[in-house]
């Protein structure tokens, strides 16, 4: 009996040792895989950023094309391929127009910024005048040590890559529309199971639906905010009103910190140009009120329960994607976070990640047979998945 007991203990110890080694190997392989993926994300960021934006634009217009392709005007019926071609042409013209507008505003700001360099440096130093002349002079010397011309050259170089990025996005969107007809068939053949393919399609539909709603609401709020800032600066006859309105529109897509940065930049531009500091303070207060009302009152009302993301998780996502892809990564941080949370909520092993990313610790559940009334209408893919589950 003692020999059998000893052999059993030896077997248990060896089994535990094997499990610990296997667990350690799994963690090491996971760390190596994460490092490889991170390396590829950094090295191929130009192409991957264009691909991510193209997928978002494709998802925004895909449902609209499905609706348009079902229209019939007399004896003429709008076909799917015709609607896709028109959509690609509209997206291309919109992107090229926006890129031209951004480049023109950047060139306008860059050509006139040097004229305001001395005034800007003195204005920043004067903010610290209440701390004493020594502090003001020290701040002035520190600000003057910053190489403004180097940052301007870097900004001009970034503006030059916008057009090439836009062309790449248009190409990606065109090829996505060519492949959209066969996506369902490819997914079913890839999964090898029709019910499983419908489930994956429902998850993808849920991600698209929530990201689309977020982008549409954010685009509306950002447009109104940017136009309000443009009117505010125009009333006070501040130069660069159009550029500041465009900058506010763009930065408002960055959650939390974007509106703060936009308000500070607008205030600094006004402070440099207006003769009285009280006017700059008034512009700061009005711009802050606009950002607060639209961002913290109107935005949550329109957004509803679409995202349900953790505020701390959003900050972490902003920091990560900002470090990996820079400013474009910060714009894409929330859509990526939505996708990760929804996917993880449908994978039992990864569900703790979804719990951490969700606001109340209650990520999206499996698609219910009867959707709640306070959610958005279910998509065709979700409806197909619900019917498949009912049939089982």
Folded structure, characterized:
This protein is mainly alpha-helical and 392 residues long. It folds into three domains: 1-43; 48-191, no CATH class; 193-308 and 364-392, no CATH class. It has 15 helices and two strands. Strands 1-2 form a two-stranded antiparallel sheet.
Write the layout of secondary structure elements.
Layout lengths: L1 H42 L1 H24 L3 E2 L2 E2 L2 H34 L3 H10 L6 H12 L3 H32 L3 H9 L2 H42 L5 H11 L5 H17 L3 H27 L7 H15 L1 H19 L5 H7 L22 H12 L1
Antiparallel strand pairs: 1-2
Shape: globular
Structural class: mainly alpha
- Mean model confidence by pLDDT: 76
Strand content range: under 5%
Helical percent range?
A: over 70%
- The strand line-up of the biggest sheet is 1-2
Which parts are unreliable, with pLDDT below 50 for 5 consecutive residues or more?
A: 366-382, 384-392
List keywords for this structure.
single chain, 392 residues, mainly alpha, 3 domains, two-stranded antiparallel ribbon, 80% helix, disordered C terminus
Short description:
This protein has 392 residues and is mostly helical. Helices cover 80% and strands 1% of the residues.
């Amino acid at each position: 009996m003692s020999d059998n007991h000893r052999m059993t203990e030896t077997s248990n110890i060896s089994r535990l040792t094997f499990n610990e080694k296997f667990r350690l190997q799994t963690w090491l392989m996971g760390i190596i895989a994460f490092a490889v993926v991170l390396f590829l994300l950094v090295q191929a960021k130009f192409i991957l950023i264009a691909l991510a934006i193209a997928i978002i634009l494709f998802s925004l217009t895909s449902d609209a094309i499905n609706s348009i392709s079902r229209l019939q005007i007399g004896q003429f019926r709008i076909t799917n391929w015709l609607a896709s071609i028109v959509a690609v042409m509209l997206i291309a013209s919109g992107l090229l127009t926006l890129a031209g507008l951004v480049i023109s505003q950047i060139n306008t700001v860059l050509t006139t910024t040097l004229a305001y360099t001395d005034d800007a440096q003195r204005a920043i130093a004067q903010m610290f005048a209440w701390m004493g002349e020594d502090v003001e002079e020290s701040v002035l010397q520190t600000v003057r040590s910053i190489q403004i011309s180097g940052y301007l050259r870097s900004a001009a170089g970034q503006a030059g890559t916008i057009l090439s990025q836009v062309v790449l996005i248009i190409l990606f969107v065109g090829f996505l529309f060519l492949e959209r007809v066969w996506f369902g068939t490819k997914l079913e053949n890839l999964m090898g199971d029709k019910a499983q393919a419908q489930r994956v399609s429902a998850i993808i539909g849920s991600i698209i639906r929530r990201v689309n709603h977020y982008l549409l609401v954010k685009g509306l709020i950002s447009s109104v905010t940017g136009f309000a800032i443009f009117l505010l600066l125009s009333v006070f006859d501040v130069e660069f009103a159009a550029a500041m309105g465009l900058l506010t529109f763009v930065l408002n897509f960055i959650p939390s910190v974007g509106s703060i940065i936009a308000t500070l930049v607008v205030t600094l531009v006004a402070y440099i140009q207006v003769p009285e500091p009280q006017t700059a303070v008034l512009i700061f207060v009005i711009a802050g009120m606009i950002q607060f009302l639209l961002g913290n009152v109107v935005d949550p009302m329109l957004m509803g329960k679409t995202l349900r993301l953790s505020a701390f998780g959003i900050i972490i996502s902003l920091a990560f994607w900002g470090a990996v892809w820079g400013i474009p990564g910060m714009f894409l941080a929330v859509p990526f976070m939505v996708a990760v949370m929804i996917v993880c909520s449908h994978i039992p092993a990864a569900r703790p990640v979804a719990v951490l990313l969700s606001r109340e610790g209650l990520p999206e559940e499996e698609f219910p047979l009867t959707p709640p009334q306070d959610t958005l209408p279910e998509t065709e893919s979700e409806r197909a998945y619900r019917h498949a589950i009912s049939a089982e």
